[in-house]
Write the structure tokens for this entry.
Amino acid sequence: MLVADLDAEAGARVAAKLGGEAASHAVDVSQAGQVRDLIERAVREWGGLDVMVNNAGVGVAATTPETDEAEWDRLMDVNLKGTFLGMKYAIPAIRDSGGGSVVNISSVAALVGVPDRAAYSAAKGGILSLTRAAAIDHVAEGVRVNCICPGTVDTPWIGRITAGYPDPQAARAAMEARQPHGRFVTPEEIAAMAAYLASDEAGSVVGAAMIVDGGLTAR
Ligand SMILES: NC(=O)c1ccc[n+]([C@@H]2O[C@H](COP(=O)([O-])OP(=O)(O)OC[C@H]3O[C@@H](n4cnc5c(N)ncnc54)[C@H](O)[C@@H]3O)[C@@H](O)[C@H]2O)c1
């Protein structure tokens, strides 16, 4: 497994935790040449590519009129273009390796209106639509493309949001209490869905948006 992230140290930490053949690779997913190099390395060192997870993402908290144009461009470059580039280079590599799976990380923001997340929602909606388009284009080549729509997941992302409040602990508890199942989604629950989508058991799951949100979009 090749762990790719802009933050080289974080990627190396995850690879070390995974152990075995896992390695890390520093990449800015908005840069085509860097994504191409990443996929070429995976194919060269592992003898092929089975699964690509497009997970990198950034957020901007703003309504549409409030969104700064440069922030819009950067968010689209990382979230939407980054996913496009990951698919552009991974799909042929997966096809040439005998088939496999692409898992894109969208969001519930692609499905329902989330306040103060205009650019983010647009990018995640784009990822959902691109997932469906690519799923239809490549299913006959043995490449299944799906996405996950997570709800509120307990990652460093949440820490950055709550850090902006006078009482971060209280803000965290309030966010958690708002979840229908009374807690945050865990990163492990998202990883489990990604592992399922990547597995042969998901052989008929094509172009799907798998919601993992503790009921957030059900009410
Ligand atoms: N945490 C949530 O509640 C939540 C909900 C729905 C969707 N998501 C999505 O899940 C994904 C992971 O988010 P997270 O919560 O773990 O956030 P996070 O900020 O903890 O992790 C995001 C990772 O993306 C990396 N990254 C940022 N820009 C990059 C770039 N240009 N190239 C390569 N890597 C880059 C960061 O270094 C970081 O490791 C994102 O796509 C996010 O939109 C998160």
Notes: The longest strand covers residues 143-150.
